[in-house]
Amino acid sequence: MPLMTFEAAIADSAAFNKRHLLLGNGFSIACRADIFHYGSLFAQADFSGCPEAEQVFASLGTQDFEAAIRALENAALILPAYVADGAGAIAKMQEHASALKEILIQTIAGNHPGVPPEIDDAKFWACRTFLSHFLATGGQVFTLNYDLLLYWTLMHDDNPFGAPIELAKNDGFGNDEDDPDADYVVWQGEVGAHDARVHFLHGALHLFDSGSELKKYTWVRKGVPLVEQARAAIDANAYPLFVAEGTSPAYSPRWAERVGGSGISL
Description:
Blueprint: H1 6-12, E1 19-23, H2 25-31, H3 33-36, H4 38-44, H5 51-60, H6 65-78, H7 87-111, H8 121-135, E2 141-143, H9 149-155, E3 173-174, E4 184-187, H10 189-195, E5 198-200, E6 207-209, E7 214-217, H11 219-222, H12 226-235, H13 248-259, E8 262-265
Parallel strand pairs: 1-2, 1-8, 2-5
Antiparallel strand pairs: 3-4, 4-7, 6-7
């Protein structure tokens, strides 16, 4: 079956009252392929702390970090069936799977554009126009990316080119009831999830699990660029939320029941 164009998908979904969007790595690559393509990230990553893990990529014939992480985690699960005394190897595989998550986050943070003005206004507004097919019509946007490009686009609403483009941007975070003046906001639980329109399924550079709550760093609360906040946290061994696990059965039925409408994956 020939691949449907975006324009054809929008036209085909016009019969529905809302559309939903799943964003993959192509969304970020379209903005800055020199940074967000897996090949670019792999080339800039520092594997000096676990050189064996770098060989996993060569063995799999890929530069996809998540594929390498899954391979290590799956190998650690099945190795006991074949190697009776493989506890040391299993522990090392699990350790390196975790290390690759940290390396990926460090590489993204280290090479990420520092502030939104490093990206042309025209790109932000092309992106806002694209997102308006979903977030201006009652739909939902789900992203698998860890970078800040989607968040920056949603916040970049001072249109220099004409009429403003209104986009829903509720992501389920809000004031911490115990500390409303904190320099971050927190996940609001089921109440927040019910009203959320933007979902960071795999985590992101500005989301941190503190153990007792999920925090979202913001510029407006702290006055420090988000990339700087993320880099400072990583330097202090506090890593952004990273979700590499999960299967479609865990999401599909409830997701489909809740959002309805027509879905587009890009």
